[in-house]
Every structure is written in structure tokens, then in C-alpha cells.
Amino acid sequence: MDELENIGEREVSRDHGTEVTSIIVDGPNLNPWLDDGCGRFKVRHFGVCVDRISVPRLVNKIRKIVNDNPDIHVWNLSLGTEDEVSKNFISYDGAALDELQASKNIIFVVSGTNDNRNEKEGMLRVGSPADSLNAVVVNSVKRNGLPASYTRKGTILSFFNKPDVSYYGGDYGEGERIRVCSSKDIEEVYGTSFAAPWIARKLSFLIDIMGFSREVAKALIIDSAAGWEFKTSTYKIQNQIGYGIVPIKIADVLESDNREIRFVLYGTASSYITSNYSIPVPRDSDNKYPFIARATLCYFPQCSRTQGVDYTSRELSLKFGRVNGKGEIDDINENIQDEVGRAVDERQSRRDFRKWENTKFISKVLKKNKAMKSYDDRLWGISIVSKERLTTSMTSDLNFGVVVTLREINGVNRIQDFITACTLRGWIVNKINIENRLTLYNKNQEQIIFDETEQTKS
């Protein structure tokens, strides 16, 4: 379908890169149970090393490859060091990936690295460059959804959530391995190297075929992995599986349940506050909102390795919820850090509101099905507050993507009510149709050859 890139890994065998590439090209044909509906991809495979390579040389190679291929949006990077990342600073190669993603319209998918020790005492932290903050870092799980036997853990700098998500990368046991194509034959393998390319396939589908920005595409991947279970169960092992396991089917990433309303917002933070206070969420017969809600925000900030644990230079704070009688947002995560007169220390801001984290996931899950009251405005709002870590003013705009999901607690389908209300308020609503996008994409890829003889006659 589309071109997707795979940069080879530090492995003794040259077959490793070929095996990873085979998943990107046609993984579902080799593993029918992992048929994601993304189809086949064309791949440019860049092998950067066979055995070992110095980190500066590796970074220089990656930079050159990226600069020489400006048409590429998604890069798969299945490599990693055996050593753990530092608790005090981002690795040199991880920081280089962050710099590239902050300055270019690209996204890296990085494997979470493996624990290859014969005798395991405690769990190792991930190896570089799996500490890249802007990249999507992927760990591996078994078929039953539990972390793989070789899993390593985050977090990064004792704060940032890594890995981002998990996927099926095989394991030691019989029936657990992933089938790949090597230069010799079909092989059965395992490792985070073989979990990452499945996510790269999905991201390329979302960006290159569906036409989403990388910010929205990343938010869709993380939101689909987190679902409604993150705050109730997944967070307990977040340092091993991230926000959760990404659904196998790309349709489950894009489409919502009949009782759900899902919409995406793409914008640019060019001032202190970017907001919209006119989201017309439907109400029930009692003028209440019968919904639980969640929202995911993603952006790609500039980062500075020299700042140590204060790594990100830009912060976007997210608030989403009902607009109350005072014209303020009742945030579903009770975010009060930017409100006048409310005192919140740095520790609480980081713990509760993920301040300085470039991915924000917030949700409102009720223990009992109880509708929320509506205020006078009877609208919902979203607010993005931009802050700089340093004293200098903002030097450039910062793009962001938000995915919002509302679930009707009584199972009623209110999607058409939402669309109608948005249209009446002057919004242009574009429905996402996978088949239509695929048809349009395939038509755009067709080559038209004109008959020179007929042209001459006309």
C-alpha cells in the first residue's frame, strides 16, 4: 500500500532486518491471527549495522537516512542496547530521535528492547533508544495479554511513561512465536523487535492512507490501547505494557461502539490558551449528560538533554469537560493547576496532571451509572494551556492532536444527535470512512499512461 521504513538492528545476523521487514510488508499473511486489515506495504529497508556500532556513528547514519528521504513519515527502529538507560538523563541516541521528531514531520516506532539474561534477578529498565520521549515505544506481550518473559520496564527519568503501548511479539513457549520470512525460510521468532513493526503498520495506515496528522495518529493508537480499563486495571503494570495493548484490527482503532461518540481535534498552540467552549454534547430527557468520557492528547515538543530530568521544554496542559455556570470547564480529571487562585505544587501537577509529559490521557469513569447535570450553557469545552520551561517566550507554534470518546451509560446511540447539534452550530463534520479513504488512496496511486499516437491525432 504505502512506503514504510525499517532501519536494521544491532544483531549478529543480517536476517534480523529482513525478518522485521517481512512483518511490515505482509505480516498478516504469515500470522493470520494478527490480520490487522491494513493490507500490504512497500518498504525501504536501511541496514545501519550488522554486529555493533558506536552510538555517534549510528545517530549520524540515522540522521542522513532521514534527511535523504523527506517523503517518509513513519520509521520503524528495531534496535536497542543491552545496558539500562540512566535514571538521570536521556541517552544520546534517544535524544537524537527526539530532536528529529521535534523538527520534522516524522514519527519513530522503537522496540522496547529485550532482557536476554540467562538468570534474571529483578527487571531491567529499557535500553536506549527506547527512552525517546517523542517516539512510540513498544513492548511485547503474550497471546494472553501478559508481559512477555523478556520484558523490560520504564519509566524514563523516574517520571515519563515508557513504553507507550504493547503488542504481540511472541515468547519462548510453543505456539507463542511470531512467523517471519528470513533470507532462507519461514522462521518463528520472538522479541520486541517483532512487536514494533505491527504498530508501525498501523501508524502508516493512519497517516499515509487515512490522512491523519502524526499527532492525531499517535493519540488514536494510545487511546485505543488505554480504553476504559486503564484507570481501573492497566495502570498497575504501566511500566511494563504502557497504556495497554493496541487492538489487532485497525477498524477497532478508528471506529467506536454504537453507544460511543468519538471525535478528533487537530490544532496549533500559538498562544497561552487554545480553547473551544462550544462542544454540543447531547443530553437526555432530564437535561443531563448520560456519559462517561476520556481524552488523549499528543504533541512533539522540543527537548534538551542538558536539562537532565527537566527534559521537555514545552508543556501543554489539557482540560476537557462540561462548561459550568461560571464559564469554566469542569475538567473530567479535575485539573486545577492553571486556575487563578488555586494552589498546586509541582509534585501534584506531575503526579495527577502529568505536567511536562508529552502524552496526556484523562478519563472519567463512574462507579455507578449516573448522568451528570448540565449547567446553563449546556455545552462542553476543551482547553489547551501552553507553558515554557525556560524564561524565554515561545519561538514557534506547536501542533497537537486530541482524541475524545464519550460513552452513553445507558447504551443509547446518540451519534446522530451529536452530528446534528454540531452542524447547527456551524461546525463542518467529516465522518471517517475507511473504505472511502482506501478507494481514494488507491485511485491516487494509479499510473495513467497516455497514448502518444492518440494525442497526436486529437
Question: How would you sum up this structure, described in words?
Answer:
With 458 residues, the chain is of the alpha/beta class. The chain folds into two domains: 3-250, 3-Layer(aba) Sandwich (Rossmann fold); 260-438, no CATH class. 25% of the residues lie in helices and 23% in strands. It contains eleven helices and 18 strands. It has helices at 15-30, 55-68, 92-103, 196-209, 214-226, 238-241, 250-254, 346-353, 415-424, 434-445, 452-457; strands at 3-7, 42-46, 74-77, 107-111, 136-141, 165-168, 178-181, 186-189, 260-269, 273-279, 288-289, 291-299, 314-323, 329-331, 359-364, 372-373, 380-388, 398-408. The strands form five sheets. A six-stranded parallel β-sheet has the order 2-1-3-4-5-6. α3 (92-103) links the parallel β3 (74-77) and β4 (107-111). α1 crosses α4 (196-209) and α2 packs parallel to α3 (92-103). The longest helix has 16 residues, at 15-30. It is globular and about 70 Å long. The protein starts with a strand and ends with a helix.
Q: Which properties best describe this structure?
A:
single chain, 458 residues, alpha/beta, Rossmann fold, 2 domains, 11 helices, globular
Can you lay out the helices and strands and say which pair or pack?
Elements: E1 3-7, H1 15-30, E2 42-46, H2 55-68, E3 74-77, H3 92-103, E4 107-111, E5 136-141, E6 165-168, E7 178-181, E8 186-189, H4 196-209, H5 214-226, H6 238-241, H7 250-254, E9 260-269, E10 273-279, E11 288-289, E12 291-299, E13 314-323, E14 329-331, H8 346-353, E15 359-364, E16 372-373, E17 380-388, E18 398-408, H9 415-424, H10 434-445, H11 452-457
